[in-house]
Amino acid sequence: MRRLLWLIVVVLLAACAGIGPAGEDVRDTVVVRVTQEALPTYTPLPTYTPPQPLPTYTPAPTYTPFPTSTPLATPTPVPEPTATETSEPTDAPTATAIAAHGMFIAKNHVATIEQGKLTVKLARILFEDKASVEKEQGRSLEGIGAEWDSATILGEMMFVITNASGKTLSVYPDQGIVLIGSRQIELALVTSGITALDDISGDIYDGVTKVGGFWYPLPRVTWDDVKTVTVRFDGPVDEHFNSMGEEFVFVVDLSSKPQEPLDASVLEP
Protein backbone atom coordinates (compact mmCIF):
# COMPACT_ATOMS: atom_id res chain seq x y z
CA MET A 1 0.00 0.00 0.00
CA ARG A 2 2.78 2.39 0.89
CA ARG A 3 4.55 1.48 -2.37
CA LEU A 4 1.39 2.23 -4.30
CA LEU A 5 1.07 5.63 -2.71
CA TRP A 6 4.71 6.49 -3.49
CA LEU A 7 4.28 5.35 -6.99
CA ILE A 8 1.25 7.62 -7.40
CA VAL A 9 3.19 10.55 -5.88
CA VAL A 10 6.13 9.99 -8.22
CA VAL A 11 3.86 9.80 -11.28
CA LEU A 12 2.07 12.98 -10.24
CA LEU A 13 5.36 14.80 -9.72
CA ALA A 14 6.63 13.63 -13.08
CA ALA A 15 3.43 14.72 -14.75
CA CYS A 16 3.55 18.12 -13.16
CA ALA A 17 7.15 18.59 -14.22
CA GLY A 18 6.26 17.93 -17.94
CA ILE A 19 3.11 20.09 -18.03
CA GLY A 20 4.82 23.30 -16.89
CA PRO A 21 6.91 24.10 -19.95
CA ALA A 22 4.38 22.62 -22.33
CA GLY A 23 1.64 24.77 -20.84
CA GLU A 24 3.78 27.87 -21.08
CA ASP A 25 4.49 27.09 -24.69
CA VAL A 26 0.82 26.69 -25.45
CA ARG A 27 -0.03 29.86 -23.55
CA ASP A 28 2.69 31.79 -25.33
CA THR A 29 1.57 30.42 -28.67
CA VAL A 30 -2.00 31.41 -28.01
CA VAL A 31 -0.97 34.88 -26.90
CA VAL A 32 1.26 35.32 -29.97
CA ARG A 33 -1.44 34.08 -32.36
CA VAL A 34 -4.10 36.17 -30.71
CA THR A 35 -1.82 39.21 -30.80
CA GLN A 36 -0.90 38.70 -34.43
CA GLU A 37 -4.49 38.16 -35.54
CA ALA A 38 -6.01 40.93 -33.45
CA LEU A 39 -3.78 43.78 -34.60
CA PRO A 40 -4.96 45.33 -37.98
CA THR A 41 -2.50 45.54 -40.82
CA TYR A 42 -1.24 49.13 -41.30
CA THR A 43 -2.32 50.62 -44.59
CA PRO A 44 -0.73 54.00 -45.37
CA LEU A 45 -3.00 56.84 -46.47
CA PRO A 46 -2.98 57.55 -50.22
CA THR A 47 -0.62 60.26 -51.40
CA TYR A 48 -2.39 63.64 -51.63
CA THR A 49 -2.96 64.69 -55.21
CA PRO A 50 -4.05 68.32 -55.64
CA PRO A 51 -7.01 68.86 -57.98
CA GLN A 52 -6.21 69.78 -61.58
CA PRO A 53 -6.87 73.45 -62.45
CA LEU A 54 -9.93 74.17 -64.58
CA PRO A 55 -9.20 74.94 -68.27
CA THR A 56 -8.84 78.61 -69.13
CA TYR A 57 -12.11 80.04 -70.55
CA THR A 58 -11.80 80.86 -74.22
CA PRO A 59 -14.64 83.05 -75.50
CA ALA A 60 -16.38 82.15 -78.75
CA PRO A 61 -15.09 84.06 -81.79
CA THR A 62 -16.89 87.27 -82.56
CA TYR A 63 -19.31 86.92 -85.48
CA THR A 64 -18.10 88.80 -88.55
CA PRO A 65 -20.91 89.51 -90.99
CA PHE A 66 -20.52 89.10 -94.69
CA PRO A 67 -19.55 92.17 -96.45
CA THR A 68 -22.46 94.23 -97.59
CA SER A 69 -23.05 94.55 -101.35
CA THR A 70 -20.90 97.43 -102.68
CA PRO A 71 -21.26 98.27 -106.39
CA LEU A 72 -18.23 99.09 -108.44
CA ALA A 73 -17.39 102.75 -108.37
CA THR A 74 -18.80 104.63 -111.32
CA PRO A 75 -17.69 108.13 -112.16
CA THR A 76 -20.13 110.97 -111.78
CA PRO A 77 -18.83 113.47 -114.30
CA VAL A 78 -19.86 117.07 -114.00
CA PRO A 79 -21.74 118.30 -115.88
CA GLU A 80 -24.00 115.34 -116.61
CA PRO A 81 -26.63 115.12 -119.31
CA THR A 82 -30.10 114.77 -117.84
CA ALA A 83 -33.23 113.46 -119.48
CA THR A 84 -36.40 115.55 -119.42
CA GLU A 85 -39.67 115.15 -121.18
CA THR A 86 -38.96 118.29 -123.23
CA SER A 87 -36.01 116.43 -124.77
CA GLU A 88 -38.37 114.35 -126.93
CA PRO A 89 -40.94 115.36 -129.55
CA THR A 90 -44.48 115.37 -128.22
CA ASP A 91 -46.04 113.75 -131.29
CA ALA A 92 -45.10 111.70 -134.34
CA PRO A 93 -41.91 113.27 -135.71
CA THR A 94 -41.99 115.11 -139.02
CA ALA A 95 -39.07 116.09 -141.21
CA THR A 96 -39.24 119.59 -139.70
CA ALA A 97 -39.31 118.26 -136.15
CA ILE A 98 -36.37 115.93 -136.81
CA ALA A 99 -34.37 118.79 -138.33
CA ALA A 100 -35.08 120.96 -135.29
CA HIS A 101 -34.46 118.24 -132.74
CA GLY A 102 -31.59 116.42 -134.38
CA MET A 103 -31.32 112.75 -135.18
CA PHE A 104 -32.65 110.26 -132.62
CA ILE A 105 -34.04 106.73 -132.37
CA ALA A 106 -36.27 105.87 -129.40
CA LYS A 107 -38.44 102.92 -128.36
CA ASN A 108 -40.66 102.63 -125.26
CA HIS A 109 -41.81 99.56 -123.28
CA VAL A 110 -39.05 97.45 -124.80
CA ALA A 111 -39.30 94.23 -122.74
CA THR A 112 -39.72 92.86 -119.20
CA ILE A 113 -37.67 89.97 -117.74
CA GLU A 114 -37.97 88.32 -114.31
CA GLN A 115 -35.07 86.51 -112.63
CA GLY A 116 -35.27 85.27 -109.02
CA LYS A 117 -38.48 87.28 -108.44
CA LEU A 118 -36.66 90.46 -109.44
CA THR A 119 -38.53 92.02 -112.36
CA VAL A 120 -36.58 94.31 -114.68
CA LYS A 121 -38.43 96.34 -117.29
CA LEU A 122 -36.36 98.02 -119.99
CA ALA A 123 -38.76 100.93 -120.18
CA ARG A 124 -37.03 103.03 -122.84
CA ILE A 125 -33.99 102.93 -125.08
CA LEU A 126 -32.82 106.08 -126.86
CA PHE A 127 -29.99 107.08 -129.19
CA GLU A 128 -29.44 110.76 -129.90
CA ASP A 129 -26.69 112.83 -131.48
CA LYS A 130 -24.48 114.47 -128.90
CA ALA A 131 -24.82 117.94 -130.37
CA SER A 132 -28.60 117.85 -129.80
CA VAL A 133 -28.19 116.75 -126.20
CA GLU A 134 -25.70 119.56 -125.59
CA LYS A 135 -28.11 122.05 -127.13
CA GLU A 136 -31.02 120.80 -124.99
CA GLN A 137 -28.92 120.89 -121.83
CA GLY A 138 -27.30 124.22 -122.68
CA ARG A 139 -23.80 122.94 -121.90
CA SER A 140 -20.88 121.13 -123.46
CA LEU A 141 -20.21 117.48 -122.69
CA GLU A 142 -16.56 117.70 -123.67
CA GLY A 143 -13.97 116.92 -121.00
CA ILE A 144 -15.93 114.19 -119.20
CA GLY A 145 -13.75 111.46 -120.66
CA ALA A 146 -12.11 110.22 -123.83
CA GLU A 147 -15.14 108.12 -124.83
CA TRP A 148 -17.47 111.10 -124.38
CA ASP A 149 -15.14 113.37 -126.36
CA SER A 150 -14.86 111.01 -129.34
CA ALA A 151 -18.53 109.96 -129.51
CA THR A 152 -21.02 111.70 -131.80
CA ILE A 153 -23.97 109.57 -130.58
CA LEU A 154 -25.13 109.13 -127.01
CA GLY A 155 -27.31 106.33 -125.67
CA GLU A 156 -29.86 106.39 -122.86
CA MET A 157 -31.68 103.54 -121.09
CA MET A 158 -34.44 103.72 -118.50
CA PHE A 159 -35.42 100.80 -116.24
CA VAL A 160 -38.23 99.97 -113.81
CA ILE A 161 -37.03 97.34 -111.31
CA THR A 162 -39.30 95.63 -108.73
CA ASN A 163 -38.13 93.24 -106.00
CA ALA A 164 -40.76 90.71 -104.84
CA SER A 165 -38.33 88.04 -103.61
CA GLY A 166 -38.85 88.46 -99.86
CA LYS A 167 -35.19 89.45 -99.39
CA THR A 168 -32.75 92.17 -100.38
CA LEU A 169 -31.33 91.65 -103.87
CA SER A 170 -28.69 93.52 -105.84
CA VAL A 171 -28.44 94.14 -109.56
CA TYR A 172 -26.14 96.36 -111.65
CA PRO A 173 -27.55 97.35 -115.07
CA ASP A 174 -24.93 100.09 -115.40
CA GLN A 175 -22.11 97.52 -115.22
CA GLY A 176 -23.28 95.49 -118.20
CA ILE A 177 -22.46 95.70 -121.90
CA VAL A 178 -24.19 97.02 -125.01
CA LEU A 179 -23.62 95.27 -128.36
CA ILE A 180 -24.34 97.50 -131.34
CA GLY A 181 -23.04 96.96 -134.84
CA SER A 182 -19.49 95.65 -134.48
CA ARG A 183 -18.95 97.49 -131.20
CA GLN A 184 -19.08 96.23 -127.61
CA ILE A 185 -19.60 99.07 -125.15
CA GLU A 186 -18.49 98.34 -121.57
CA LEU A 187 -20.80 100.40 -119.38
CA ALA A 188 -19.01 100.06 -116.04
CA LEU A 189 -16.80 103.15 -116.34
CA VAL A 190 -18.66 105.41 -118.77
CA THR A 191 -22.24 105.77 -117.54
CA SER A 192 -23.75 108.96 -116.18
CA GLY A 193 -26.92 108.67 -114.11
CA ILE A 194 -30.12 110.57 -114.73
CA THR A 195 -30.30 112.96 -111.83
CA ALA A 196 -34.08 113.21 -111.49
CA LEU A 197 -34.52 109.43 -111.14
CA ASP A 198 -33.48 106.63 -108.75
CA ASP A 199 -30.05 105.04 -108.58
CA ILE A 200 -30.88 101.57 -109.91
CA SER A 201 -27.44 100.05 -109.31
CA GLY A 202 -26.95 98.04 -106.09
CA ASP A 203 -29.27 96.92 -103.30
CA ILE A 204 -33.02 96.83 -103.80
CA TYR A 205 -35.01 95.94 -100.68
CA ASP A 206 -37.96 93.57 -100.74
CA GLY A 207 -41.18 95.20 -101.98
CA VAL A 208 -39.34 98.21 -103.47
CA THR A 209 -39.67 99.48 -107.05
CA LYS A 210 -36.93 101.70 -108.45
CA VAL A 211 -37.18 103.84 -111.58
CA GLY A 212 -33.93 105.09 -113.06
CA GLY A 213 -31.49 105.05 -115.91
CA PHE A 214 -28.29 106.44 -117.35
CA TRP A 215 -26.58 107.96 -120.38
CA TYR A 216 -23.49 106.52 -122.05
CA PRO A 217 -21.30 107.44 -125.05
CA LEU A 218 -21.05 105.38 -128.25
CA PRO A 219 -17.62 106.10 -129.76
CA ARG A 220 -17.08 104.91 -133.34
CA VAL A 221 -20.79 104.04 -133.74
CA THR A 222 -22.72 105.44 -136.72
CA TRP A 223 -26.45 105.71 -137.34
CA ASP A 224 -26.22 102.85 -139.83
CA ASP A 225 -25.06 100.61 -136.92
CA VAL A 226 -28.23 101.27 -134.90
CA LYS A 227 -30.32 98.34 -136.10
CA THR A 228 -30.22 95.56 -133.51
CA VAL A 229 -29.01 96.39 -130.01
CA THR A 230 -28.30 93.81 -127.29
CA VAL A 231 -28.15 94.84 -123.61
CA ARG A 232 -26.69 92.32 -121.13
CA PHE A 233 -25.97 92.45 -117.38
CA ASP A 234 -25.63 89.94 -114.55
CA GLY A 235 -28.66 88.47 -112.78
CA PRO A 236 -29.55 89.38 -109.20
CA VAL A 237 -27.51 88.31 -106.16
CA ASP A 238 -28.52 88.14 -102.50
CA GLU A 239 -26.76 89.79 -99.55
CA HIS A 240 -24.14 87.00 -99.51
CA PHE A 241 -23.49 87.40 -103.25
CA ASN A 242 -25.21 84.12 -104.11
CA SER A 243 -26.69 84.15 -107.60
CA MET A 244 -30.49 84.33 -107.56
CA GLY A 245 -31.11 84.24 -111.29
CA GLU A 246 -29.64 84.12 -114.75
CA GLU A 247 -28.22 86.98 -116.79
CA PHE A 248 -30.58 89.64 -118.07
CA VAL A 249 -30.45 89.83 -121.89
CA PHE A 250 -32.52 92.32 -123.91
CA VAL A 251 -32.39 92.14 -127.70
CA VAL A 252 -33.96 95.25 -129.26
CA ASP A 253 -34.91 95.56 -132.93
CA LEU A 254 -34.51 99.17 -134.07
CA SER A 255 -34.27 98.52 -137.80
CA SER A 256 -37.44 100.56 -138.39
CA LYS A 257 -35.79 103.60 -136.75
CA PRO A 258 -38.66 104.26 -134.29
CA GLN A 259 -38.91 107.73 -132.75
CA GLU A 260 -41.38 107.22 -129.91
CA PRO A 261 -41.92 110.18 -127.56
CA LEU A 262 -41.44 109.83 -123.83
CA ASP A 263 -44.69 109.68 -121.84
CA ALA A 264 -45.60 109.04 -118.22
CA SER A 265 -46.64 105.41 -118.80
CA VAL A 266 -43.09 104.49 -119.75
CA LEU A 267 -41.93 104.76 -116.14
CA GLU A 268 -44.78 102.76 -114.63
CA PRO A 269 -44.10 99.17 -113.38
List keywords for this structure.
269 residues, four-stranded antiparallel sheet, 4 helices, Immunoglobulin-like, five-stranded antiparallel sheet, single chain, 11 strands
Assigned CATH class of the domain at 85-267:
Mainly Beta
Q: What's the order of the H and E elements?
A: HHEEHHEEEEEEEEE
Q: Major sheet: size, sense and barrel closure?
A: 5 strands, antiparallel
- Looking at the structure, the CATH topology of the domain at 85-267 is Immunoglobulin-like
Name the beta content range. Answer: 25-35%
How widely separated are the two ends?
A: 157 Å
Tell me what you see in this structure.
With 269 residues, this protein is an alpha+beta fold. It has a domain at 85-267: Immunoglobulin-like, CATH 2.60.40. It contains four helices and eleven strands, in the order ααββααβββββββββ. The strands form three sheets. Strands 1-2-3-9-7 form a five-stranded antiparallel beta sheet. It has a four-stranded antiparallel beta sheet with strand order 6-5-10-11, with no helix packed on it. A two-stranded antiparallel ribbon has the order 4-8. It is rod-shaped and about 180 Å long.
